[in-house]
Amino acid sequence: MPNFNCKIDFIPVSSDFIENHMPQANGAYVKVYLLALSLAVSGKSMSTGEMAGNLNLLESDVVNALEYWNKNGALRYDNENVLFGAAKPSEKTDEITNKKSMEQITEEMTNNKALADLCTISQEILEKPLRNRDIETLYWFYDELGLSPEVITMLLEYCVSKDKRSMSYIEKVAISWHKNGIITIDAADRFITEEKEKSGYFGSLKKLFGIENRNFSKTEETYLKTWRDDYGMDENMVGLAYEYCIMQTSKLSFPYMNSIIKRWNELGIKTVPQAEKDHEDFKNKNKQNGLTVFDDDSVNYDELERIMQDKM
């Protein structure tokens, strides 16, 4: 029968568990974790069979849940004991290594101003005081993962931009950067820029166009970058061009949208109200001449594609 032990005298559900462990976990596993935590705090013993009965689960589900949380570092489980608050370094970091002590780190920082400044900068970025274990983790990024203080600063800013300030989350990102070779300022800058593009201009338009199972092609990216960088059209303007494109052709056509956006650029039209007014004026004028707005038959897609590629 498992013995439950805990080093604290209240029932805690840590922000680390809520932010980094719970969202991905099976609901039944969360029930097992909370019951196990309650047993540990109260110092009670309960078999996995009894836990299963209390939670209306199979005993195998309880065992699988404890093994799951053990593997993810939320608790320690060895088939007999369940222990909270003592995860091994290898479980927490996915690396077989130990962090240096504060005494060793302090000595290093006295001889390296950049490292000393990193602590001050980190507190400003995270908007909270650093605990000793936070400092140990930051130094571990430098000492074991090979990240410079400048790259660590970029790492912190990137995580905060995603509204993530938990050091356990930041540590996971640092390990991911290390594994993917993102250890220089240039590499970190490229990664962050790509991520911003995915979640920003490119990401919003990809969602608008209903493109879910593929990335933009190189030609499509060329159009998007031209509209954004050369013509200065934001997502709303491209979205309006897309709306007019669908209304006229019933399909997504980058060359067709480009014919609209290029015209706006030539006329100095940069806002949605200006574009909508131009559209109404253009529609009224063409109605008088017996023409259709942005007549699809008048657009030579192959020619537009060739001209566009020649200009890139």
Task: Please explain how this structure is put together.
The protein has 312 residues and is mainly alpha-helical. The protein is built from 17 helices and three strands. The protein has helices at 15-21, 27-42, 48-55, 59-71, 89-93, 102-110, 113-126, 132-143, 149-161, 167-179, 185-199, 201-208, 218-230, 235-249, 254-267, 272-288, 301-311, and strands spanning 3-5, 76-77, 81-83. It has a three-stranded mixed sheet. Helix 11 (185-199) runs parallel beside helix 12 and helix 14 (235-249) crosses helix 15 (254-267). The longest helix is centred in the last third of the chain and has 17 residues, at 272-288. The protein starts with a strand and ends with a helix.
